[in-house]
Amino acid sequence: MNLMLILQAVAQLPTTTPVTSEKTETMFDIVLKGGWILAPIAFLLLVAVYVIIVRSFELHKSSKTKNLVDKIAPMLKEGNIDKAITVCESSNMPIGEVLTCGLKNLGNPVSDIKDSMEAEARQQVDDMSQGMNYLAIISSVAPMFGFLGTIFGVIKIFYSISLTDNISIGGISGGLYQKMISSAAGLLVGIIAFSAYHILNGRIDRIISSMERQSNQFLNLLRNK
Q1: What is d(CA 121, CA 215) in angstroms, rounded to the nearest whole number?
Q2: Which residue range(s) make up the domain with 44?
Q3: What's this model's pTM, rounded to 2 decimal places?
Q4: Where is the MotA/TolQ/ExbB proton channel domain (predicted)?
């Protein structure tokens, strides 16, 4: 009798369904689902990183601000122009090239020396700004590529719905989240390029200010000589 009661109790226990483990996706797997549009976005990222590294290295060398005018002033008073030119050329800084241009034009009117130094300064600014236009373009184009990939994905989703006449929330959301990856990637690359563009431009502006200050100091030194 007791055995029968136990069997009946066991039979009345609720049945449990086996727990199925959901397949988890890594971030790399999710990125791969972004589609072919990620290829040009990745290319833009590589270009941006290259420009950032090269410009940062060059500007770091140029921003080692030394007051060359104070260094060459005693040489000018002694008339040792060749030594002053050597010091400026060996500085490996934009202001060194500008001062070298001024020193090589000594003997001409100060106004002519100033004009030659301004022309050299413009050339140095152009050299420092190489590649910056690429960062500006990438900061605008990369998000557009991302949105374009999302639009293509949405078009594909609705085209599939039109063929099957089967509207599934799971199907729509699953396909849409994959296509939103391209938008996120484009925005990320755009943010990197945009931020780097303004940071590097700020460093260039500081170098230009230093060049202007030392150039004026050099010209005043010539006027008072």
Answers
A1: 9
A2: 34-223
A3: 0.75
A4: 93-212
150-198 per-position pLDDT tens digit: 887 777 777 776 777 666 665 566 567 667 888 889 999 999 999 999 9
Name the one residue in this structure whose structure tokens are 């005018």: 69
Could you tell me which residues are beta bridge partners of residue 106?
108
Nearest to 194 by CA among 137, 130, 125, 128: 137
Task: Find out whether 197 and 135 touch, Cβ atoms under 8 Å.
Answer: yes
Asked if residue 136 is part of any domain, the answer here is yes
Question: Are the C-beta atoms of residues 124 and 215 closer than 8 Å to each other?
Answer: no
DSSP letter at 93? Answer: S
Residue 8 placed within a domain: no
Q: pLDDT tens for residues 90-148?
A: 888 899 999 999 999 888 898 899 999 999 999 999 999 999 999 999 999 999 998 88
Residue 9's Cβ-side half-sphere holds a number of Cα atoms within 13 Å equal to: 6
